[in-house]
Design a protein that fits this description.
The structure holds two protein chains of two kinds. Chain A is of the alpha+beta class. Helices cover 24% and strands 21% of the residues of chain A. In chain A, strands 2-1-5-3-4 form a five-stranded mixed sheet, with helices on one face. A three-stranded antiparallel sheet of chain A has the order 10-11-12. A two-stranded antiparallel ribbon of chain A has the order 6-9. In chain A, a hairpin with a 6-residue loop joins strand 7 and strand 8. In chain A, helix 2 packs across helix 3. Chain B is an alpha/beta fold. Chain B is 30% helix and 17% strand. Chain B has three domains: 172 residues, Dimethylsulfoxide Reductase, domain 2; 189 residues, Rossmann fold; 112 residues, Barwin-like endoglucanases (Beta Barrel), CATH 2.40.40.20. Classes of the chains: A alpha+beta, B alpha/beta. Chains A and B meet through strand 10, strand 11, helix 7, strand 13 and helix 8 of A and helix 2, helix 10, helix 12, strand 9 and strand 10 of B. Strand 13 of chain A pairs antiparallel with strand 11 of chain B. The complex binds iron/sulfur cluster (2 copies) and FE2/S2 (inorganic) cluster. One iron/sulfur cluster (SF4) binds next to helix 5 and helix 6 of chain A.
C-alpha cells in the first residue's frame, strides 16, 4: 500500500495512493460536502457538491479524482461556494416536508450540508418552482419511497445494482419529474426488488425510509435467528420490545449486510400468539398450568420411559448451550442415544 | 464450510451445485456476485433455472438426482485431459487409483444421457473449474437431500481434491447450512451417534471418557435418527418424545406418516415459542423464548461461534430452554445440571469438546471464533485442511463412486418429478416468518412451479388451484407456470401450513447420512375447478 502526501487546505496529510481526494480527506477527518458518495459504491459524480480546487487552478470532482504526490487541494473558494450553494438551494427548494416530523432528522446529509453552507430560508422561496406533491410509494410492506424528499443521488440505484446485483430500480423520467422508479414504473412491491433494505440504510435523506420506524432506546449486539450465514446484527430495543434491526458492519460474515428476513423479520418476537404459559392437555383440550405442575408431570412421565422408549428431538434453532444440555440430559438422565435434530431437513 | 464466507468473493471460479444461494443464503449470494464482478467464472448446476443463473457463465441444468454422474463426468474429463493437480494428489491424497478406476463408467456420452446436459457444456464446465484457480465449491440441500446424498458430498470433495482446490483461501468444499445453528447442534452432539465434538458413542475409549466427565454409565449403542425415531414410534418402540423447537409435521418427509406416528406417542412434550402444528398434538407444551430473550452462542455455516445476547425479558411466563431442560433433569435426579448461566455451560462444553477448547464468552465478546480453536491463545481456524486432513494418515481419501438413480422416478401414474425449494421471504416451516406480516405480503402462499409444456399437457393455467398427488398423499396449491422449471419437473417450497408439501415427499433414506430424499419424488398434477 503505497502512501502519498498531499495538502488539503494547508494541512499536510498522507493517504493510500489509490484513494480519491474525497476519501483521503474524509479519512483524515476533513469534511468536504458530498451527497452521492458512498464508501461501499463506485463514485458516480452526480451531485457535484464535492467539487474542489486542485493546484490553484483546476476545479475537479473530488470523489472521482485520484490523489497524487504533492497535490495541493482547496476545499473552498468563492466560486466553489457559490456553485455549491445554488445546487443545495435547488435541492432544498424542491424538498417537500418539514424536518421536525422527518425520521431522518439529525442524521440527514442534506441538513448537514445546508447547515455547513449556511443556507437561509428566505433564499429558498425564490427558487421553488413547483408545488406539485408527488405520490409516495407505500407498496412495499417494510419501507416507503417519498420522491418529494429524494435528492437523486442515485445511491439506492447503485446499491441495488452494484452490491445486490438486483437492479430493481433506476433514475427515471426527466426534469422536475425525475425520480427513482422500478422497471416499467410499477409499484415497488411488484418489481423484482428483494426487500433487502440495503438501499434504505444508505439513503442519505428521508426519501427511502422503513415503515413504522421507532428509534430504539438502546441496542444489543446479537446474531440473526434465521439461516446459517449467521449475520451479525444489533437489535434495537425500546420499552421491552424489538423495534428494529441493524447489520453489524464489523462482523466478518456479513459486514453489515442483511437480507429481508434478517432485517425486517423480527416481529415474531413480540407476536401476540407467543406461548406465555405452560399448557397441559386434559380431555383433549389444552389447559394453562403453572411451571411447577407442568414440570412435575413431565418429570413423572419421563421417569416411566427411561432408555430406548424415549427420544429427544433437539433444535437447530436452539443455542449451543441448550443443545449441549439436551444431549447430556438424553444420555445421562434418560440413558439413550436417541437424540437428533433437523440437520437433514 | 472448509473456508470462510468472506473469501468466496476472491475466487476465480465458483461451482454452485444444489444451492439456490441468493434465495436460501443471501449473504453468501452477495459474495458470489462480488466474485463475478471481479471477473470470476460461475458454474451453476441445478435442475431449475435459479436466480443465480443470471450471473453464470455456464449453467448445467441436469435432471434432478443426477449430480454424481455429472460431477464424475466432469472429473473424467479433467483426468483425461490432464488438468488434474498431480503434485497435490501425490503429496496429500490417497486411494487415487481406485477412484480413477471408477471414473471409467462415466464416459461423456453416458453422462450426457443420464443427466440430460449437452456434452459440450459438461466439457466446458470441467475445463473451467480445473483451470481457474482458486476455485470454490458451494453446495446445499440439493446435494444432501437424496438417497445417495453421502455419495454426492463425496463427489464434490473428489472434485476439489483432484484439482488441489482445498486448504487455500477462496477454495474448498463449502456446504451451506440451512438453519442458524444447525452446525452448532451437530457440534454439540445433538446426534444419535456422537458426543460433542463428533466423538463416537460406540468407541469404548470415548465412552469411558464421557462417563468420567458426566459421572454416569452411558449407553454404548448409537441411537436412532430423526426419521427413524418416527418409524420407531409407529412400531410402538418409542413411547415418549421431548421435542424442542421443531415442527416435523411440516418439515419431515412423508409428513402424513409422521403425523400418524405422533398420534401414537404415549407422552409428547413440545417446547416451542408458538403453538405449532406439531405442538397442538402434544400432551404438555412448554413455552420457550426466542433468540432475543436469551444468552448463548450460535455456530454458523463457516464454523464461526458467535454470541447471542439477551435484549429483552422473556414474554409472559415463557422460560429459556436451558432452564427448562435443567429443571427436568434435576427433578429426575440428574447430576451436573446445576448450571447458573449459559456461560457455565460453555465452560463445560470447552472442557469436553476439543474443537471448542479455546472458546470462552470472554473471547467471544471481542468477536466470533471459527473452530477448531484448540487452546486459549489459538486464533481459530478460518480455513480447514491447510497442512493435513483430519484423518489418521493426514491424507484425504478419494472415494470411488457409482451412479444410482433416485428411489422414486416418474412413471405413467405419477409422470412429474417434484423437487423442493425455498423462498427468500420465508424460513423452514415459517413458524417465525409466517408471523411477520410484511413477509406474508411479499410471499403469502405456496406455488407449484410448472413448465408451460407440462401446464399445457395437464391442462393447468397460471394461478389456477391445482392438486398435487404422490404415492403418499395430496396437497393443494396455486400453479405458477414458468420455465424456471424444465419440462417434467415441478417444484414447491414447504413453508406454508395450508399446503403441506412434505405430505408428498419420499422418506427413502440415504443409507449413511439417513437423510430423506426430499429433493426427488414422483407426482401427478391436476387442475381444480375454478
Ligand atoms: S430493497 Fe434491496 S433489492 Fe429492493 S430496491 Fe433496495 S437494494 Fe434493491
Ligand atoms: S440476515 Fe438473511 S442471510 Fe443473514 S443470517 Fe439472517 S437469514 Fe441469513
Ligand atoms: S459526492 Fe462527488 S459528485 Fe456527489
Amino acid at each position: 500500500m503505497a502512501e502519498v502526501s498531499l495538502t488539503i487546505d494547508g494541512l499536510e496529510i498522507t493517504a493510500n495512493k489509490d484513494m480519491t481526494v474525497l476519501e483521503a480527506a474524509l479519512e483524515n477527518s476533513i469534511y468536504i460536502p458530498h451527497l452521492c458518495h458512498h464508501p461501499d459504491l463506485e463514485p458516480a459524480g452526480m451531485c457535484r457538491l464535492c467539487m474542489v480546487e486542485v493546484d490553484g487552478k483546476r476545479m475537479v470532482i473530488s470523489c472521482k479524482t485520484q490523489i497524487r504526490d504533492g497535490m495541493v487541494v482547496r476545499t473552498e473558494s468563492e466560486r466553489i461556494n457559490r456553485i455549491r450553494k445554488i445546487t443545495v438551494q435547488l435541492l432544498i427548494a424542491n424538498h417537500q416536508g418539514d424536518c421536525l416530523s422527518c425520521n431522518k432528522s439529525t442524521t440527514c446529509e442534506l441538513q448537514c450540508i445546508a447547515s455547513y453552507l449556511g443556507i437561509k430560508e428566505e433564499e429558498l422561496d425564490l427558487m421553488r418552482r413547483s408545488d406539485k406533491i408527488r405520490p409516495i410509494d407505500t407498496s412495499n410492506p417494510f419501507f416507503d419511497y417519498d420522491p418529494n424528499k429524494c435528492v437523486l443521488c442515485g445511491i439506492c440505484v447503485r446499491t441495488c445494482a452494484e452490491l445486490q446485483g438486483v437492479s430493481a430500480i433506476d433514475l427515471a423520467f426527466r426534469g422536475f419529474d425525475t425520480s427513482i422508479s422500478t422497471f416499467g414504473a410499477k409499484p415497488w412491491v411488484e418489481s423484482n426488488c428483494e426487500s433487502c433494505g440495503e438501499c434504505i440504510i444508505r439513503c442519505p435523506v428521508g426519501a427511502l425510509m422503513p415503515k413504522h420506524q421507532l428509534r430504539p432506546s438502546f441496542e444489543v449486539r446479537s446474531v440473526c435467528p434465521y439461516c446459517g450465514c449467521g449475520c451479525g446484527m444489533y437489535l434495537g430495543v425500546r420499552a421491552g420490545r424489538i423495534v428494529g434491526v441493524r447489520g453489524e458492519i464489523d462482523n466478518p460474515s456479513n459486514r453489515g449486510s442483511l437480507c429481508a428476513k434478517g432485517r425486517f423479520g423480527y416481529e415474531f418476537v413480540n407476536h401476540p400468539q407467543r406461548l406465555t404459559e405452560p399448557l397441559i392437555k386434559k380431555n383433549g383440550e389444552f389447559v394453562e398450568a403453572s411451571w411447577e405442575e407442568a414440570l412435575e408431570l413431565v418429570t413423572e412421565k419421563f421417569s416411566q420411559y427411561r432408555g430406548e422408549q424415549f427420544a429427544c428431538i433437539a433444535s437447530a434453532k436452539c443455542t449451543n448451550e441448550e443443545n449441549y444440555v439436551l444431549q447430556k440430559f438424553t444420555r445421562v438422565v434418560m440413558g439413550t442415544n436417541n437424540i437428533d435434530h433437523c440437520a437433514r431437513l | 464450510m472448509t473456508n470462510p464466507i468472506s473469501d468466496i468473493g476472491g475466487a476465480s471460479c465458483i461451482l454452485a451445485v444444489g444451492t439456490n444461494t441468493t434465495v436460501a443464503h443471501p449473504i453468501v449470494g452477495l459474495q458470489v456476485k462480488k466474485a463475478v464482478q471481479n471477473g470470476a467464472k460461475l458454474i451453476v448446476i441445478n435442475p431449475k433455472e435459479i436466480d443465480l443463473c443470471r450471473f453464470a457463465d455456464i449453467f448445467l441444468q441436469n435432471k434432478p438426482g443426477t449430480n454424481i454422474a455429472l460431477l464424475m463426468g466432469m472429473m473424467r474429463i479433467i483426468v483425461d485431459e490432464g488438468l488434474l493437480d498431480a503434485s497435490f494428489i501425490e503429496s496429500r491424497c490417497e486411494n487415487f487409483d481406485d477412484f480413477k478406476e471408477s471414473l471409467k463408467n462415466f464416459d461423456i456420452l453416458t453422462v450426457e444421457k443420464i443427466t440430460g446436459v449437452p456434452k459440450e457444456d459438461i466439457i466446458e464446465a470441467a475445463r473451467c473449474y480445473a483451470t481457474n484457480k482458486p476455485a470454490s465449491i458451494l453446495y446445499a440441500m440439493g446435494i444432501t437431500q437424496h438417497i445417495h446424498g453421502t455419495d454426492n458430498v463425496m463427489a464434490t470433495s473428489n472434485l476439489a481434491l483432484l484439482t488441489g482446490n482445498i486448504g487455500m483461501p477462496s477454495t474448498g468444499v463449502n456446504p451451506l447450512r440451512g438453519q442458524n445453528n444447525v452446525q452448532g447442534a451437530c457440534d454439540m452432539g445433538a446426534l444419535p451417534n456422537v458426543y460433542p465434538g463428533y466423538q463416537r458413542v460406540d468407541d469404548s475409549v470415548v465412552q469411558k471418557k464421557f462417563e468420567s466427565f458426566w459421572f454416569q454409565d452411558l449407553p454404548s449403542s448409537p441411537g436412532l435418527t430423526h426419521t427413524e425415531i418416527f418409524d420407531a414410534v409407529h412400531d410402538g418402540e418409542i413411547k415418549a418424545i421431548y421435542l424442542v423447537g421443531e415442527n416435523p409435521i411440516l418439515s419431515e418427509a412423508n409428513a402424513s406418516h409422521t403425523e400418524a406416528a405422533i398420534a401414537k406417542i404415549e407422552f409428547l412434550v413440545v417446547q416451542d415459542i408458538f403453538l405449532t402444528e406439531t405442538a397442538r398434538l402434544a400432551d404438555v407444551v412448554l413455552p420457550a423464548v426466542t433468540f432475543a430473550e436469551k444468552d448463548g452462542t450460535f455456530t454458523n455455516t463457516e464454523r464461526r461461534v458467535q454470541r447471542v445476547r439477551k435484549a429483552i425479558e422473556p414474554v409472559g411466563n415463557a422460560k429459556n430452554d436451558l432452564w427448562i431442560t435443567c429443571q427436568i433433569a434435576q427433578r429426575m435426579g440428574g447430576k451436573g445440571f446445576d448450571f447458573s448461566s449459559p456461560f457455565e455451560v460453555m465452560k463445560e462444553i470447552a472442557s469436553v469438546t476439543p474443537q471448542y477448547k479455546g472458546i470462552s464468552y470472554d473471547r467471544l465478546d471481542k468477536g466470533g471464533l471459527q473452530w477448531p480453536c484448540v487452546s486459549e491463545d489459538h486464533p481459530g481456524t478460518p480455513i480447514l485442511h491447510i497442512e493435513r486432513f483430519a484423518t489418521k494418515s493426514g491424507k484425504a481419501k478419494f472415494m470411488p463412486l457409482e451412479y444410482k438413480p433416485s428411489a422414486e422416478l416418474p412413471d405413467d401414474e405419477y409422470p412429474l418429478l417434484l423437487t423442493t425449494d425455498r423462498s427468500l421471504f420465508h424460513f423452514h416451516t415459517s413458524t417465525m416468518t409466517g408471523r411477520v406480516e410484511g413477509l406474508n405480503v411479499l410471499d403469502g402462499h405456496e406455488f407449484v412451479r410448472i413448465n408451460p409444456k407440462d401446464a399445457a399437457r395437464f391442462e393447468v393455467t397460471d394461478d389456477q388451484m391445482v392438486r398435487v398427488f404422490s404415492r403418499r398423499g395430496e396437497v393443494e396449491a396455486k400453479a405458477k407456470v414458468t420455465d424456471v422449471c424444465p419440462p417434467g419437473v415441478v417444484s414447491m417450497t414447504f413453508h406454508f401450513p395450508e399446503s403441506r408439501t412434505n405430505v408428498l415427499t419420499n422418506s427413502a433414506l440415504d443409507p449413511v447420512a439417513k437423510i430423506p430424499e426430499t429433493k426427488v419424488c414422483a407426482v401427478r398434477v391436476e387442475g381444480m375447478k375454478q
